[in-house]
Amino acid sequence: MICTLDESDAIAGVLDELSATMAGIDHEIVVVDDSHDELTAQAVLACAAHTPQIRLLRRREGRGLASAAIAGWDAAHGQYLAIMDGDGQHDPRLIAQMFRLLEQGRQDVVVASRYLHSRSSGLGLVRHAMSRGAVRLTQLLLGARLADPMSGCFAMTRDWYADVRPHLSGLGFKILVDVVASGRRRPNTAEVPTQLGERRGGVSKMDPRVVADLLTLLLEKRTRGLLPAQMALFFAVGLGGLAVHLTALWALLHAGCPFWIGQLVAIMAAMTCNFLMNNILTFRHCRLRGARMLSGLLMFYLACMFGAFVNESIGWALHAAGVNWALAAGAGSVAAALWNYHAAKRTAWSSTLNPPQAAAVAVELRVSSR
């Protein structure tokens, strides 16, 4: 399974090489394309015209590599499932090598690791440092017994996928973390060494949003789903909003504004900041634009205002019952945060789909016969 995003320059070569290495093995190659134009899809269909094992799933509103991977695996028919990049950085020969290990029947997941026998990954200096940091953090939080839990090339059995599928978050770009951390037990794993080749097309998907997705995904898996990744990101944005609130209030008070005016302006500034950041980060897969963004902002204001009422009511009731003021205030804040998250999700971003559900929104395109 190959996920593509604007990789028309590379995908044909990758498909030709993969088809050649898989010759003699019963297989199919599923490409899930989230590209902004039709060039990648056209290149895939051109390859499919002479290689019937190639299938194309086209998604009009891509929601990241993880949900694309889920869409591809859901549509696949094989006993073993694998994933690799479509930009030419992964060696296609790895797929057959990993399948042979799975056929021995002792492993659930086999990973192509950049760090198994070497510290060199084939990445640039900055991306290498970020990747190593993410690896260390994942190993620390999840106890992952993998040298490279950030790998984008791995294979697994159909049975393992069926076990983890109901629990996959489908968030962001690091699907391996999701796959190995979502089972009812730890998977039996093996690793094969690899080093990334030169990218033939497309661009790196690494940006601050990908890092945020990874951190919140790790929190979700570490808490066994008690703190969903999307909710964790919403709460993190809320902490940023608190910083905006305090900064704005401090500036206005020092400018001579009465407290009630400063507090009102600071609250509106914080809510606006929270809305914009949530639109960019937390709910970016259904980001609001244009007139819908304005109506969403108004709905967000209403949701947060009621959240403030919830905060005050619970805090006052607990304090009146003899609970310590700090605990009462904290309980009110937590209740308000939970309310704000669920209310915002169902009002301002009411069209939100959970990533595993969104994964199914794909259309299979076939080569037209003439």
Polypeptide structure, described:
The protein has 370 residues and is α/β, with parallel strands linked by helices. The protein has two domains: 2-223, Spore Coat Polysaccharide Biosynthesis Protein SpsA, Chain A (Alpha-Beta Complex), CATH 3.90.550.10; 229-346. The protein has 13 helices and eight strands. The protein has helices at residues 11-21, 39-48, 65-75, 93-103, 125-142, 158-164, 175-181, 208-222, 229-254, 259-280, 291-320, 325-346, 355-358; strands at residues 2-4, 29-33, 54-58, 80-85, 109-113, 154-157, 189-193, 363-365. Strand 2 (29-33), helix 2 (39-48) and strand 3 (54-58) form a beta-alpha-beta unit. Helix 1 (11-21) packs parallel to helix 2 and helix 8 (208-222) crosses helix 9 (229-254). The chain starts with a strand and ends in a 5-residue tail after the last strand. The model is unreliable at 352-360 (pLDDT under 50).
